[in-house]
Design brief:
heterodimer; A: 198 residues; alpha/beta; Aconitase, domain 4; globular; B: 478 residues; 5-stranded parallel beta sheet; 15 helices; 19 strands
C-alpha cells in the first residue's frame, strides 16, 4: 500500500446521496481475478453511453476531472455491496480521497485498507467544498492525514477523524495483515480455550 | 465491568470472541468461527496468501461455494451445467484451484450441496447460534437470524481471516428493532423489512448492529427471519440479529452439520445462554406495528424507496430537503415513473423469484400456492431460481417445479442469478421487473433494467396479473 501523508489536489463533485457500490463498479466487471484494471470501468453506467462513448454531461468526463484526485459526494457514499472492487476502481482511476458527510461501513473499511482516504466532514462543509469546485474547478485542496485536516485554497482548515490504527497504517503504508499475523500466540491460546465449542 | 449489567446479544457474542479488546490506538481482534467463501470476492485474497507464503489457518472453519457468476441454465446431457462465459469460467476454475491448494471444502457448480452461500450455510447446519460468521458478501447478515454475529467483509479482510481466522474490528453501536402485532394475510417478512428500510432509510442504521425483537419477530419461521436479517445491510447496518429460541433449535435439529447426541445437548445448553430479548441496554430503539404493515413495493433506485403497494409514488415537490428532492427526481427519471402514479396495475416484463433474500423452500411454496392452476401472463417472463440444489430437490419432490412450469415460468438451476446479473440472467434496458431480491440500484439486474422489490407473494400475483398486483387479493383468509 502506498503511504498517504499529505495530498494536494483538485476535486470533482458528484452531488448525489447514497451512491452505491453497484454504480461505482457494476457487477459485470467483478468476474476478474485481479485488483488492477478496474479504473476504466469506474461509474461505467453513468460514464459511458450504450455504444461505450463517454457521456459529456457526466462529471468524470469533464476536462477538469482528468487530474482530480479528490471525489466529493453526497452522504452515505459506498452503500450496498461489500465489493472491494469499489475502492480498487476509484484508486485505479486516480482518486486518493473521497469527501462525504457519511460513508457506508464496509466501504470505509475497504477504502482505508487500500490507501484511499475517506474524509468525513459535516454536510454544510461538504456543500461548501462542492460549491467552491463548481465555481473554480482548478481549486486546490490540501489533505493532511498527520494533522487530520482538510484545507480550502483560502487556508481555512476543517478537522476530520480517521480511526487511529487505520491512520497509522496509511501514514506508514503498511497493511493490517502484518499486525494480525503477530497475534498468532494469542489466537492459538484462544482456540485452546474453545476446543470443542463447535 | 459490563458483565454485571444485562448485555445485548451482540455484546455477548462480541465479548465471547474477543482475542484482544480495542483501545483508542488499536481495534479489537475478533475471532471468526465460520468463514464462507465464493468465487467473486476471494481470488485476490488467495493471491495475497500466495504472495506472502501464508497458509489458510483453519480450512476446517472455512467453506466455499459457487453462486454469483454461475449459470442457472439447464444441465447438458452429461449432467453438468455449462459455463459459456469465458471470464466466469476462469474465475470458477480459480476458486477450484484455490480450494484444492489450500485444503478448503468446496461445493462445485451443480454438485449436491451447491447453492447461494447464505442459503447453504443454514440449510446444512453450519450456521449456529453464538457464532461469528463472515463472508466477502454484504448479505452475510442473513445468518444473524440464528443469533449469530454475521457480517460482510471486503476482500482484504477475506485474506485476514483466511490467514489468521481473525478480524480487526471497532465495536458497532446497537439498535433494537421491536415489532409487535400480527402480520395480515398476504403480508410477509419481506414486507416487514422493506417497511423498516422505508422508515429509517438506506443509511438509517449505519454504524449499528440491529437486534430484532417483539412478538411479530418471535412468530416468524427461521426462513422468514433470514429474509429480515438478510436485508439489514440495506438500512446500512453491519448485521442484523435475532436471539435464538425454540424455533431456531427445531430448525437446526438433524441438519447435516448440526451437533448430534451429547454434543447437541451441550450446544443447546450454550445456545440458551444467548436467548432472551428483554432488559438489555441499547443505543437506539425503533418500533414497528406489524398490524399496520401492508404488502410493500419499491418504486425507486434504493431499497429505502418503498411504499405500500396501494400507495401512490411520492412527489418530489413535496420534499423540503433539496438533496432528497434531487435524489427522488433522479430515481423517478430512471424508473420512468410519474409523481403520484399508482403502481398497482403497472405492466411488468419480468418476474424474478430467487436470491439470498427469498429463494428458500418456504418462499417457493408461498409463490406456488398462488400460482397453482394459474398462468403467467403472456407478456411476462418469470424466472424461478431456487437458492440451492437442496431447495431445488425439495421443491421438485413436492411438485412445485411442475406448478411453476405449468404456469409458464422457467424453472432453473440454483444461484444468485438475476439478483446481481453476473451470469447472463439479466433485464434488458428499460424492462420492468418485480423481483424478490434485495437491491433495486440502477442497473443491478441488468444495465438499464428497472426493479420493483417485493415479496414472493407479490411476485407470484404480479406474474399472473401481468401487472403489479396486491397479494392480499390472491391469498386465502381475506
Amino acid at each position: 500500500m502506498e503511504p498517504f501523508v499529505t495530498l494536494r489536489a483538485t476535486g470533482v463533485v458528484l452531488p448525489l446521496e447514497n451512491v452505491d457500490t453497484d454504480q461505482i463498479i457494476p457487477a459485470r466487471f467483478l468476474k476478474t481475478t485481479d485488483r488492477l484494471g478496474l479504473g476504466n470501468n469506474l461509474f461505467a453506467d453513468w460514464r459511458y453511453d450504450s455504444s461505450g462513448a463517454p457521456k459529456p454531461e457526466f462529471v468524470l468526463n469533464s476536462p477538469e476531472a482528468k487530474a482530480a484526485q479528490i471525489l466529493v459526494a453526497g452522504k452515505n457514499f459506498g452503500c450496498g455491496s461489500s465489493r472491494e472492487h469499489a475502492p480498487w476502481a476509484l484508486l485505479g482511476y486516480g482518486f486518493r480521497a473521497v469527501v462525504s458527510s457519511e460513508f457506508a461501513d464496509i466501504f470505509r473499511n475497504n477504502a482505508l485498507g487500500n490507501g484511499l482516504l475517506p474524509v468525513a466532514l459535516p454536510e454544510p462543509v461538504v456543500d461548501r467544498i462542492g460549491a467552491l469546485i463548481a465555481n473554480e474547478p482548478q481549486a486546490s485542496f490540501v489533505i493532511d492525514l498527520e494533522t487530520q485536516t482538510f484545507a480550502l485554497p483560502s487556508g481555512e482548515l476543517f478537522d476530520f477523524h480517521v480511526d487511529p490504527f487505520a491512520r497509522h497504517c496509511m501514514l506508514e503504508g503498511v497493511d493490517q495483515l502484518g499486525y494480525l499475523a503477530k497475534k498468532e500466540h494469542a489466537i492459538a491460546a484462544y482456540e485452546r480455550t474453545r476446543a470443542g465449542a463447535y | 465491568m459490563t458483565q454485571t449489567l444485562p448485555r445485548t446479544l451482540f455484546a455477548k457474542l462480541w465479548d465471547d470472541h474477543l482475542i484482544q479488546a480495542e483501545s483508542n490506538a488499536t481495534p479489537a481482534v475478533l475471532y471468526v468461527d465460520l468463514h464462507l467463501v465464493h468465487e467473486v470476492t476471494s481470488p485476490q485474497a488467495f493471491s495475497v496468501l500466495r504472495e506472502r507464503g501464508l497458509k489458510v489457518r483453519r480450512p476446517d472453519r472455512t467453506l466455499a461455494t459457487m453462486d454469483h457468476s454461475t449459470p442457472t441454465t439447464p444441465r447438458g446431457a452429461d449432467g453438468r451445467i455449462p459455463v459459456v462465459d469465458v471470464q466466469a469460467r476462469a474465475q470458477l476454475a480459480q476458486l477450484e484451484q484455490n480450494c484444492a491448494d489450500f485444503g478448503i471444502p468446496l461445493f462445485t457448480l451443480g454438485s449436491e450441496h451447491q447453492g447461494i452461500v447464505h442459503v447453504i450455510g443454514p440449510e446444512l447446519g453450519f450456521t449456529q447460534p453464538g457464532m461469528t460468521i463472515v463472508c466477502g458478501d454484504s448479505h452475510t447478515s442473513t445468518h444473524g437470524a440464528f443469533g449469530a454475529l454475521a457480517f460482510g467483509i471486503g476482500t482484504s479482510e477475506v485474506a485476514h481471516v483466511l490467514a489468521t481466522q481473525c478480524l480487526l474490528q471497532r465495536r458497532a453501536l446497537s439498535m433494537e428493532v421491536r415489532v409487535d402485532g400480527v402480520l395480515a394475510p398476504g403480508v410477509t417478512a419481506k414486507d416487514l423489512i422493506l417497511r423498516l428500510i422505508a422508515e429509517i432509510g438506506v443509511g438509517g442504521a449505519t454504524g449499528h448492529i440491529l437486534e430484532y425483537s417483539g412478538s411479530a419477530i418471535r412468530a416468524l419461521s427461521m426462513e422468514e427471519r433470514m429474509t429480515v436479517c438478510n436485508m439489514s445491510i440495506e438500512a446500512g447496518a453491519r448485521a442484523g440479529m435475532i436471539a435464538p429460541d425454540d424455533t431456531t433449535y427445531e430448525y437446526l435439529a438433524g441438519r447435516p452439520h448440526a451437533p448430534r447426541g451429547a454434543d447437541w445437548d451441550a450446544a443447546l445448553a450454550r445456545w440458551r445462554t444467548f436467548a432472551g430479548d428483554a432488559g438489555s441496554m441499547r443505543d437506539r430503539t425503533v418500533i414497528l406495528d406489524a398490524n399496520s404493515i401492508k404488502p410493500m413495493i419499491t418504486y425507486g433506485t434504493n431499497p429505502g424507496m418503498g411504499i405500500a403497494v396501494d400507495a401512490p409514488v411520492p412527489t418530489p415537490s413535496h420534499l423540503s430537503d433539496a438533496s432528497e428532492r434531487r435524489a427522488l427526481e433522479k430515481a423517478l427519471a430512471y424508473m420512468a415513473l410519474e409523481p403520484g402514479e399508482m403502481l398497482l396495475g403497472k405492466a411488468v416484463d419480468v418476474v424474478f423469484l430467487g436470491s439470498c433474500t427469498n429463494s428458500r423452500i418456504s418462499d417457493l411454496r408461498l409463490a406456488a400456492a398462488v400460482m397453482r392452476g394459474q398462468r403467467v401472463a403472456s407478456s411476462v417472463r418469470m424466472l424461478v431460481v431456487p437458492g440451492s440444489q437442496e431447495v431445488k430437490r425439495q421443491a421438485e419432490s413436492e411438485g412445485l417445479d411442475q406448478v411453476f412450469r405449468d404456469a409458464g415460468a422457467e424453472w432453473r438451476e440454483a444461484g444468485c442469478s438475476m439478483c446481481i446479473a453476473m451470469n447472463g440472467d439479466e433485464l434488458r434496458p428499460g424492462q420492468y421487473a418485480v423481483s424478490t431480491s434485495n437491491r433495486n440500484f440502477e442497473g443491478r439486474q441488468g444495465k438499464g433494467g428497472r426493479t420493483f422489490l417485493a415479496s414472493p407473494l407479490t411476485a407470484a400475483a404480479s406474474a399472473i396479473a401481468g401487472t403489479i398486483a396486491d397479494a392480499r387479493h390472491y391469498v386465502g383468509g381475506r
